[in-house]
Amino acid sequence: MTTLAIVGAGRGLGAAVARRFAAEGFSVALISRSQEHVDELAKEVGGADCAGYAADVRDPTALTGALDAAARDLGPIEVLQYSPLPHRDFLRPLLDTTVADLTGAVEFSIYGPVTAVRQVLPGMRTLGRGTILFANGGSGARPNPRVAGTSIAFAGEGAYASMLHTELAPENIHVGQLIIPGAITAGDPHTDPDTLAATLWHLHTDRTGFRVFARDLD
Ligand SMILES: NC(=O)c1ccc[n+]([C@@H]2O[C@H](COP(=O)([O-])OP(=O)(O)OC[C@H]3O[C@@H](n4cnc5c(N)ncnc54)[C@H](OP(=O)(O)O)[C@@H]3O)[C@@H](O)[C@H]2O)c1
């Protein structure tokens, strides 16, 4: 059995993607800052092959340690999803955004993904296949001066992901990005967590294209 690792897993998108991939036969590793939170979530997702690991994505040692432990406990990581919910400090208007706000946003959206990808890549190469999925809000596709930190840092994350898409395709490692404009909303035909989880599942199985949108940008 291989493993889906969700970096930044909570009750919304993370839980829905965990359920979807678990139903398809994957082991699931749930990573967030709180061990209690991911333990609770792992119980809700269910099954012996779902476990929680604590790490802050802004702490590279903790993040690589969590991914390493997940691969040892649950099996090699075939799918990595990077989807922590950005902190509200990263969502300030452009002219209120300080260097300190940007430092956090860059650690969160650029250093975190590079750390996670570099940790799982050797295992994917050994497996001979892999999928790396990024989830971002609308500011990941069109900068929004009301949320400057994510707009700036998501641009870097998107550039990294897009280059990875091209670079890793010959190795049967598919890289995709889901852009979710607006809020994730239960019951919404475009942004219900289960609908988004199905889209991410199809990104993993179809293995074509890089960026998909949950709905049109306004
Ligand atoms: N929610 C929305 O309306 C919305 C809209 C558009 C796009 N998105 C995208 O969708 C994804 C999140 O979906 P969601 O809102 O449904 O989230 P979720 O899966 O319910 O939870 C995400 C989890 O990220 C964890 N997290 C936050 N900061 C972290 C950090 N520094 N290190 C490690 N984990 C961290 C939090 O858990 P802890 O507090 O335990 O760390 C949180 O529970 C993100 O990629 C986001 O950009 C969300």
TrEMBL record:
InterPro entries: NAD(P)-bd_dom_sf, SDR_fam. It comes from the Bacteria. This is SDR family NAD(P)-dependent oxidoreductase. It comes from Cryptosporangium phraense. The lineage of its organism: Bacteria, Bacillati, Actinomycetota, Actinomycetes, Cryptosporangiales.
